[in-house]
Amino acid sequence: MALFDLPLPELERYLPELDEPADLDDFWATTLAEARRHEVLVDVTRVDAGLRLVDTDDLTFAGFDGQPVRAWVTRPAGSAEQGEPLPVVVEFIGYGGGRGFAHERLAWATAGFVHVVMDTRGQGSTWGNGGHTPDPAGSGPASPGVMTRGIHDPEQHYYRRLMTDAVRAVDAARALPNVDQRRVTVAGISQGGGVALAAAGLCDGLAAAMPDVPFLCHYRRAVDITDAFPYGELVQYLAVHRGAEERVFRTMAYFDGVHLGRRATAPALFSVALRDATCPPSTVFAAYNHYAGLTGRPRTDIEVYTFNQHEGGQAFQLDRQLRWLPEVLAATPAAQVAEAAAR
Question: Which positions does UniProt annotate for substrate binding (predicted)?
Answer without folding.
Answer: 95
